[in-house]
Amino acid sequence: MPSRTGRHFLQIPGPTNIPDRVQRAIAAPTIDHRGPEFAELTLRLLPCLEAVFGTSGPVVIYPASGTGAWEAALVNTLSQGDRVLCFETGHFATLWHRMALSLGLDVDLVPGDWRHGADPEALRLRLAADPRHTIKAVCVVHNETSTGVTSRVQELRRTLDEAGHPALLLVDTVSSLACIDYRHDEWGVDVTVAGSQKGLMLPPGLGFNAIGERALAAARTARLPKSFWDWQPVLDANEHGFFPHTPATNLLYGLDEALRMLREEGLPEVFARHARHAAATRTAVKEWGLEVLCLDAREYSGSLTAVLLPEAHDAEKVREVILDRFDMSLGAGLGRLAGRVFRIGHLGHLNDLTLAGALAGVQMGLQLAGVPVPSAGLDAALDVLRTG
Amino acid sequence: MPSRTGRHFLQIPGPTNIPDRVQRAIAAPTIDHRGPEFAELTLRLLPCLEAVFGTSGPVVIYPASGTGAWEAALVNTLSQGDRVLCFETGHFATLWHRMALSLGLDVDLVPGDWRHGADPEALRLRLAADPRHTIKAVCVVHNETSTGVTSRVQELRRTLDEAGHPALLLVDTVSSLACIDYRHDEWGVDVTVAGSQKGLMLPPGLGFNAIGERALAAARTARLPKSFWDWQPVLDANEHGFFPHTPATNLLYGLDEALRMLREEGLPEVFARHARHAAATRTAVKEWGLEVLCLDAREYSGSLTAVLLPEAHDAEKVREVILDRFDMSLGAGLGRLAGRVFRIGHLGHLNDLTLAGALAGVQMGLQLAGVPVPSAGLDAALDVLRTG
Amino acid sequence: MPSRTGRHFLQIPGPTNIPDRVQRAIAAPTIDHRGPEFAELTLRLLPCLEAVFGTSGPVVIYPASGTGAWEAALVNTLSQGDRVLCFETGHFATLWHRMALSLGLDVDLVPGDWRHGADPEALRLRLAADPRHTIKAVCVVHNETSTGVTSRVQELRRTLDEAGHPALLLVDTVSSLACIDYRHDEWGVDVTVAGSQKGLMLPPGLGFNAIGERALAAARTARLPKSFWDWQPVLDANEHGFFPHTPATNLLYGLDEALRMLREEGLPEVFARHARHAAATRTAVKEWGLEVLCLDAREYSGSLTAVLLPEAHDAEKVREVILDRFDMSLGAGLGRLAGRVFRIGHLGHLNDLTLAGALAGVQMGLQLAGVPVPSAGLDAALDVLRTG
Amino acid sequence: MPSRTGRHFLQIPGPTNIPDRVQRAIAAPTIDHRGPEFAELTLRLLPCLEAVFGTSGPVVIYPASGTGAWEAALVNTLSQGDRVLCFETGHFATLWHRMALSLGLDVDLVPGDWRHGADPEALRLRLAADPRHTIKAVCVVHNETSTGVTSRVQELRRTLDEAGHPALLLVDTVSSLACIDYRHDEWGVDVTVAGSQKGLMLPPGLGFNAIGERALAAARTARLPKSFWDWQPVLDANEHGFFPHTPATNLLYGLDEALRMLREEGLPEVFARHARHAAATRTAVKEWGLEVLCLDAREYSGSLTAVLLPEAHDAEKVREVILDRFDMSLGAGLGRLAGRVFRIGHLGHLNDLTLAGALAGVQMGLQLAGVPVPSAGLDAALDVLRTG
C-alpha cells in the first residue's frame, strides 16, 4: 500500500497545475497598484493577453472567477427582459443559463443530450423562428468542462451570419482558452468569457471578457444594473495602465509570466500539444473498451476527456480509489452525469510523461475498482505519444 | 544619489506588505477545489475568519476585490428603488454611493467635509425625518481609506436603535478589519464588507461579507438581480467546505496562514499595535507643523494618516520625490483631496523600525520637496515608539 | 513533436525532486545564525536527523557536498600513511579511494566487477591477512550510485567482528540514507557519510557525518591536517545550537521540513516505498528483455536501477532521445560503464504515477532509439504497483 | 510593548537580507547537474562572477562556506611547514591564522589592536627581515567583519612589490566583495577568498577562490594534502560547465540572479551606496557621542560599523534590548571585543529607509539600555542620506 508522497497528480479539468515559474512570479511582493511600475505591467500584459484571445480589441480583466466574467458579459450587453438563447450542452451551460434567468433575462434553452455541442442546425431553426430579432444574444460554452465536448463556434457564427440575425454571440472559453484553437476576431465573437485557472496556468482568481465592437456598442444601451462588472471604467482606467478597483496584483504577475511561457511555446504548438494529449487519452479509453462521452469526433475536446462507465459501475468509486491509492484527482461527473462519468483533465502545464503517469493511474484505478480494462489502453496511448 | 536597491517601502494604505509566511503559503500548488483536502481547508478557515469580524455568524468569501463585496452587500439585501442612506465621508464612501445609484437604488447622501466620520447626529435627524421607515439601509465606511477618518459605528448603531428604525446597517471595513477594533455581532452590524489586501496581509483578490441575522432575513425578499454575488449558494456549499464558483484557492492558503499569524499575535495586540503606530505617526505630523486631515481625535484612524499640506505645496510632488529618492510608495490624495494630501499607510504587517524608516523617508522627502519640516517630527515619533 | 512544457522529470539518482514544502521552507528569509531562533532550529533538527541515521550519537552537518563529508570522515579519524581498505564497487567507490590516496593514506583496493557489492568474503581474507591490524579503516559505499548495487553492511560488520579486527567501518550512504534501511548504531558503523540531495529531498549543499564512539575516540589521535572538517568545534558549538562556521541556514530550514515529512510518512514506510518502486522498475527492465546491472538479488538497490544495454546499443543515445523527446533526465553510465548503462533514479520524493510516467518514458525512448523493447515492460511494472 | 510582527531587521554584518528576486530564484526546481541546461548556467555565471572579483582569471565555486574557501586557498598553494604571515586585525584574521596552524603551516602573526587594518609598514619590516624569502604567503582580511576595519590591500601589494618579495598575497573578501571597491587583477592579489552570504546577497553555502596566475603556478608544487578543495578538477570540469562534486545548484540559481542585480545597479554604484550608508552610520555614532571602533579614516568599512561603548555599558545588553523590543539583529562583539562593541551591518541588499529604520532602532535601543545618546545621531545620519 503506497504512502502519500511525491507530487499530487492534479488531472481535473481545472484548476490546472501551476508552473513553477508562475508560482514564483506570484510570490513577488505586492506593489502600489497606482504607481508607475504597475502601469508598466498592465500595459505590457494587455496586448499579449489579447493575442491569446485572438483579438486586437480590448480584454477586461476582473479580480474574480470565470463565473463572475459570465455575469459581466451579460450585464454589460443586455437589458432586463431581453431574450437570450442558451444551449444545454452540459452542466456549465446550465449554470450560465440559470444565471441569465437570475439576472432577469428571458432565456430560451435549446435542450441537449450532454454528448454533443451546440447544434448549428438548431440555431438555424431558432433564428428562422425569430424574424423580428427578439433574440438579443446567443450564449455558447466553447468547451463544456462537464462533458469534454467542444462546440463549433465558427459554424454557429456562420449560421448567425447566414440568417442575417443581429444577436450577439457570447462564448465561454473558460476551459478552452490557450488549449483549443480559438479566434475571437476572426470568428466574429462578440464577447469571450474566460478565467485564469485552466489554459492560462494560473490559480483561480482572474476573469476575462474579450469585447468585440458590436458588444461595445451594445454596452452603451444595455440597462441591466451593474457597477463592479461595468466595462467602461475598466477600459478607461486601462488606458493608463490602471484599474478602477484594486486589481489582483500578484495574479497579474503570474499572468505576465504565463503569457511569456505561451509565447515561448507558441500558440499553434500549445493547441497541437493539447490535441495530441487528447488523442492519446481517447485512444486509451477506447482500448479499455469504455466510451468517450463526446459522440461527435468533430467535437472532441482538447482539454479534457469525459469517460462514460458501463451502468454497473460507479464513477465516484473509481475516483475515490484513484485518489486514495494513487494521489490523483480526476473530475467528477456533474449534474445528471454524477456517478456515470469521470473526467480526465489534460490541459494546461502538462507533458507526455505526466499524461502517461495519469493514464497509468486511471488504468490501475479502474482495475482496482473492478472495472475490467486491459493494459492495452495505456499501451495504445503511448503509441500515440511515441509516434505523434 | 541612491540606487534602487533593498526592499521597497510599501506604505500606501493597502495593499499592504505580504508577510513572507503568507507569500510562501500562497505559492503552494493549487488543489482540487472539490476534494476532501480543500473542504478541510475551508472548514478550518471559516470559524477563524469569523472571529476576526467578531461574529459567530456566516462570512461569505468571494474570489473578488472589496469593491465586489460592496456590491454583494447591496444586491443581497435590497430591491430596485429601495431608499439607502450614505455618508459622504470621503472618496470611497462616494464610490459606494455611486455604486448604489448604478444598481438602481434611491440614495440619500449626507454631505460631509471629508475630515469627519459619519455623524451620528446627522443620522438621528435623517431617521427622525423618516417615520415610515422608507430608508432600508444605512451604508457607512468604518475607516475611510481616503481620509484616515474612522467613523464611530457603535454610536451610529445606538442612534438607529434609539430611533427604533429598522434600516440595515452596512459597514465597509476594507481598511479597518484586523487593524482597528471592530465587532460585527456586538455592535449590531448587519453586513460587514471587507477585502483581503489590508489588515489581512494578503494580496488583493478576496472580498468578504459578514452577514447578520437581519441581513439574512432581508436577503430572502431582496429583489435586486444577482447571481455571482448571491449569498445563498455560497452558504449552502460552505456547509460542506465547498464553493459554488471556483474559489481563489491559493489566496485561501494565504488567508489560512494570515489568520494563524493574527491568532498568534492576538487581536487586541493587533489593534494596540496599529493604534500605537498611528499615534507615533500623528505625533510626527504635528511636530512637522503639518495638519492631520482628520479633525476629531475620537475618529483618528489606526490604519493610515492623511497629511494635509499648506496650500503652497503640492502633495504629488512630495510623493514623487519620496518614490524617486527613497523607493517608498505613499497614498495619493484622492478625489477632491488630490494634490492636497498624501497618505501614510501604517497597517498590516508592520513593525516599529519599518515605521521609523517610513517616517524618516517622509521627513526627508518633505524637506527635499521644499516643505520645511523640522527633524523634531521623527524624534517625537521615536519617543512614542520607545516609551509606548 | 512535443514541446517542452509541464514539469521536468528528474529521474537521475540524485539530486532528487524537491518537495514543494521543502522548496518553500528554503525560501524563508535568512536569520542571524548566532541568535536564539537559530539555536532553536538546530536543537530541534539534530535529534530528528540522528533518528534518520539510526543513531543516538552526534551527526555533524557541513555546509558542503557529500564529497566533502567523505573527506571529513577520513581526516577526522586517520593519520598520514594509515592503511585503509576500499572496495571497488563502482565509480563513487573509486573516487573515494582516489580521495584517500590524495590525502596521503595508504589504500588497498579490493577489485570488483561493478556489478556486486563489497564482498564480505574478500573482506574476511584481507582481515585474515592483517594479523597486526595495520588496516585502520574499511571504506564502503552502502549504495553505489553508479551501479545500483547495495552492499551488505551488516555482513561486513559481522566479518569485522568475527575477525576481531579493530579497523573502523566508514560507510557512504549518500544515495541510501532515507531510501534504504540503514542503522548506524545497530549495525556498528563508525562513521556514516551522507548528503542532502537524495533521500533527504533537499538541494545539494549539506554533507553529514554520523559519528560512533570508536570514531570519536579515533579522532582524538588522528593527525591528518584538518580545520574546516574538524568535528570537535562543530560538536562543541552544536551543544548550544550553533556552528563554528557560517551554516547554510536556508538548507537547514529545508532539512527541518524534510525531516518532518519523513516522520509523517514513517521511516519503515519510506523504505518500503523505495523497495516497491525498485521492484516495479526491475520488473519492467526484465520484461523489456534488458539486464539489471546488479547481479545479486540480495544487493538490488532501492534507490536506483542501472540498466545494461546490449553491446550494439549506445546508452547515451537513449538518454539523449529521452531528454529531447520526453524532457526526462536519467543518469549516465559513469567511468567504465559510460555508454553501456543508463540509470533510473527512483528515490526521494516520488510516487507511483510519477514512476509510471518515468517508466513509460524509458520504454518509449528505448523504442525510439532503436532498442526493441515490448510494452509488456511497463504493463508488468504497473502490475507490481497495482497489487503491491 | 510592541508585538513581533513585520519584517525582521537583519542588520548583522552577514548573512544579509536576501532580495525577493534571489529568494524566488533559489526556489526553482533542482536540475540535473550533468545536463546541458546546467552547463549553460555555469558558463553564463562564471564570467559575471569574475567581473565582480575584478579578474579575468578563474574563480572556483565551492558548495561550502567562506571558511572552507580559506582552507582551499591555503591547501592549494602551500606545503606542510611553509612559512605564512598573518595580521591580527581582528577575530576572523585570528581564525584564519589558527586554521593555517591546524593545517601544519608555520605562521607568523603580526600583532594588532583590532582597531587598525594590516599595517603596510609592519609588512615592510617583516619582508625586510626575510631576505631568503622563506615567507611563502601573506594572508590579509580585506574587511575585518569583527571590527569594521578595511585593510589597504593596494598598499600591501605595493609593499610586497617594492620589497621584491615573491610571497603570495591571499586576501579574504568575505565581507567586502560586492560592497567595497576591490580589484583582484589590478591589485595583484594571488588568491581572493569570498563567500555568498554578504555582498552577493545569497544565503550562506557558497565559497569562492579567485585565482591569479602566480597562485596557479604555486598550486602545481603545493603539497598540503587536498582532495575536495583541489582547484584543478574544478577548473577542468568548469571548462565544460560542470563540477567534479555535486554543486549547490539552487544557490547557483540565486547567484545568477544576484549577479544580474549587481550588473543592473553597476558595481561603482554598489560601492558608492555602501560608502554612503557607512558614512551616515558613522555620523550617527559620532553624534551619539560614541566611538567608531576603527581608528583610521582611511580604513573605515563600507560594510559594517563596530560601535565601541563606554566601559560602564554592556554591548550585549544593548543588543538584547534591541532584539527584544525592535526585532533587529545586530552583530555581537567577538573574541576580545565581546561585550564592548556591537556591530551594525549595512551591506548587501539595503536602502536608505531600511538603514534609517535600523539606526532609529539602535538609537532607541541605546536609550532604553541606559546609554544616554541624543536623537541628534539619527538626525545627522538623515542629513547625510538626504543630501548625499
Describe this structure in words.
The structure is a homotetramer of 388-residue chains. With 388 residues, the first copy, chain A, is an alpha/beta fold. Chain A has two domains: 9-16 and 267-387, Aspartate Aminotransferase, domain 1 (Alpha-Beta Complex); 20-263, Type I PLP-dependent aspartate aminotransferase-like (Major domain) (Aspartate Aminotransferase, domain 2). In chain A, 43% of the residues lie in helices and 15% in strands. Chain A has a seven-stranded mixed β-sheet with strand order 2-10-9-8-5-3-4, sandwiched between helices. The longest helix of chain A is centred in the last third of the chain and has 21 residues, at 267-287. The first copy, chain A, is globular, with a radius of gyration of 21 Å. The model of chain A has no long low-confidence stretch (mean pLDDT 97). Chains in contact: A-B, A-C, A-D, B-C, B-D, C-D. At the A-B interface, helix 1, helix 3, helix 4 and helix 9 of A face helix 1, helix 3, helix 4 and helix 9 of B. Chains A, B, C, D: It comes from Streptomyces xanthochromogenes. Chains A, B, C, D: InterPro entries: Aminotrans_V_dom, PyrdxlP-dep_Trfase, PyrdxlP-dep_Trfase_major, PyrdxlP-dep_Trfase_small, SP_NH2Trfase/AEP_transaminase. Chains A, B, C, D: This is Serine--glyoxylate aminotransferase.
